[in-house]
Amino acid sequence: MTHSIPEMRHYTFNFGPQHPAAHGVLRLILEVDGETIISADPHVGLLHRATEKLAESKPYNHSIGYMDRLDYVSMMCNEHAYVLAIEKLLGVEPPVRAQYIRVMFDEITRILNHLLWLAGHCIDIGAMTMFVYAFREREELLDCYEAVSGTRMHATYYRPGGVYRDLPEQMPQYKTSVWHNASEVEKQNKNRQGSLLDFIWDFSARFPKRVDEYETLLTDNRIWKQRTVGIGVISPDTAIAMGFTGPMLRGSGVAWDLRKKQPYEVYSKLDFAIPVGTEGDCYDRYLVRVEEMRQSNHIIRQCVEWLKKNPGPVIINDHKIAPPKRVDMKEKMESMIHHFKLMTEGYCLPVGEAYAAIEHPKGEFGIYLVSDGANKPYRLKIRAAGFPHLAGLETLVKGHMIADVVAVLSSLDIVFGEIDR
Amino acid sequence: MAGVEELKTQIIDHFGVLLQHATVACGELTVTILPTDLREVCFALRDHRAFDFKLLVDVCGVDYLHYGIDEWDTQSTTGKGFSRGVKGFVNVKSPASSSRFAVVYHLLSLTHNHRIRLHVLLDESDLIVPSIMDIWVAANWYEREAFDLFGIVFAGHPDLRRILTDYGFAGHPFRKDFPLSGYLEVRYDATIGKVIYEPVTSVVPRVLEPKVIRDDNRYLSGE
Question: Which of A28, A170, A205, B156 has a Cα-to-Cα distance from A230 of 20 to 30 A?
Answer without folding.
Answer: A28
